[in-house]
Amino acid sequence: MPTLGPRIHFFEVNDQPWFPSFLRSRVQSALTLAWTFRVPFLQQSSPAALVASTLHRVLGGSGNGNGNGSQNVRDYTFVDFCAGAGGPTPAVERILNARLAEEADGTTTSSNNPNYGKGESQSQRRRGDGSGHNHGTQVQFVLTDLHPHLDAWTAAAKKSDNLTFVPESVDAANAPKSSVLLDAAAATNSDNSGGRTKKVFRLFNLAFHHFDDPLAARILHNTLDTADGFGIFELQSRTPSGLATVFLLGPLFTLLTPFYFYSSPVHLFFTYLVPIIPFVLVWDGYISSLRTRRVDEVLALLNLDHSTGDGKGRERALQGWTVRSGEELHTWPVGYLCWVIGVRDGDTGTGTEE
Question: How far apart are CA 220 and CA 240, in angstroms?
Fold first, then answer.
C-alpha cells in the first residue's frame, strides 16, 4: 500500500493541555476498548491479542527460535514506556501469559482467539495456572509514563502478579538503567521480583507517533543504550487503508458506547448529545495516521544523533541489534497493526515480514 506523502506532525486534540482531563480520560477509555474489543466477522482477534501473538512469534516461545537460535519471549520483562491509563498492556500480559502457561501444560489454544485467557479465574492468573505453579513460564509487564496514572495502574496490578508499575515519572528519552527501573517496579508488588533478573523490552503501544523527530530520536537512542529490545505497535498507517480504518471509528463507537459505557452519563452525553468523544477519536485518528512512521523512517531517526555527524549513525547504533517489521490484519479489509521490533542479540541486520 503506497504511503500518503511525507510525515506531518500536526496536533492531536487529546494531547493538548487545554483539553479537559475528564474528556481525555474518556477518550483514552475508548482507545483501550479499541485495543481489547473484537468486532464480530471483521476481526479474528482483538488488536491486543495480535500484539501478544506477534511478540510470541517474533521473540520465540515454546522453545521456538526467532531465527537467532536462543531468543525467547521469556527472557524479557516488558516495560510500557507510555502506558497512559494502562492501554492494551494489561490485556497483552493476560493473553501472552495464558498462552505460555497452556503451552507449558501441553495444550495448544491459540492466542488469536479473542477470548484467550478469559476463562481463567483471577486467582489462577495470579498463580500462573490452576495448580498454583507457573512452571517458570510467566513474563512480567511494567507500566510507566511521564505522568503516572496511579489509581488506574493500582487497580490493574491487583488483577495479576505479573503486572506492576513505576509510581514515579519516567521520561522515555532519559530513562534510568534497567536495574533501577525494575527495582522501582518490584517495590510496588512484593510478590513479584522475577522480572528483575531479566532483560528489558520496551513497549510503545500507539505511542511512538506522538513524538516529533528530535524527541523520537532521543527516545530511540536511549532505548538502544538502556534496553535489550523494543517494540513499536501502531493501529494505523500513513496509507489509504489506514485512513479508511479511522473513518470506521466514529460509527463503531457510536454503536458500542451504550454497551460499554452505559454507567457513565458523562460519556453518553459527550457521545450523543454533544459528540466530542467520537469527533476527537476520528480527528486524532487521522492525525495519528499522518504522523505514523514507516520502518525506514524509524531507523533514519538514528542518524539524528549529533555525535555521529558523518552519516554513519544508523550503522553504529544498530551494531549488535536485529530489527524486524511487519503488518497484521486487525480489521477486515483495511485495518492493519503495524509493528517494528528490535532485539539486542549479537546479530546485526534488518528484516521485514510479509
Answer: 27
- Distance separating alpha carbons of residues 348 and 178, to the nearest angstrom: 22
Question: What's the CA gap between 194 and 178, in Å, rounded?
Answer: 14
Q: DSSP letter at 196?
A: G
What is the rounded distance in angstroms from the CA atom of residue 140 to the CA atom of residue 228? 15
Q: Is the dihedral of CA 306, 309, 311, 314 positive or negative?
A: negative
Closest to 293 in 3D by CA, of 185, 345, 349, 220: 220
The model carries a pTM of 0.86
Per-residue pLDDT of 87-123, as tens digits, reads 999 999 999 999 999 988 876 555 445 444 443 434 3
Q: What is the DSSP letter of 135?
A: T
CB 229 within 8 A of CB 139: no
Q: Which of 279, 273, 235, 274 is nearest to 253 (CA)?
A: 279
**Phi, psi at residue 225, to the nearest 5°?**
-80, -30
Q: How many CA atoms lie within 13 A of 224 on its CB side?
A: 22
CA–CA separation, 143 and 166 (whole Å): 6
Strands 335-344 and 321-331: antiparallel
CA dihedral 324, 92, 87, 203 (to 10 degrees): -30
What is the maximal distance between C-alpha atoms in the chain? 58
SS3 string, 15-82, reads HCCCCCHHHHHHHHHHHHHHHHCCCCCCCCCCHHHHHHHHHHHHHCCCCCCCCCCCCCHHHEEEEECC
